[in-house]
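Hi R.,

Here's the chain you asked about this morning:
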Amino acid sequence: MFKDPFSFYGRIRRTEFALTQIFYFIVYFFVLIVKNNKSVGSWIEFTKLLPIYLLMSQGAKRCHDLGKSGWWQLVPFYMLMMFFSPGDFGPNEYGDNPKGEGNERYDAFGYDFKTGKTIAAGEHDPV
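And the predicted structure, written out as tokens:
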């Protein structure tokens, strides 16, 4: 979890996405408190940019987990889908399933090079 939070590539689970949202609102709350202090200049506004970038990158990865482009996070109310919908089973075009379910890729001889597992003949069709 949180292996590469500022990257726009890959997939993340709902838990990591929700924790990122909570982190953003905590930081935003403290920025509002400091901003209301009259002795602080306008530099505090720039401190909101890093959490917003983090929010966008994590949102794009959550969209990837649902099999959609990262631009879908700009659609109104799609955030609810990002919070409550389970991700695609197995790998999709954006990467492997972050839960690890269905990520096995067996060759014609029943061997998965990533995990080193083999299967008995006839258990599943080769990729």
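The radius of gyration is 20 Å.

Let me know if you need anything else.
M.
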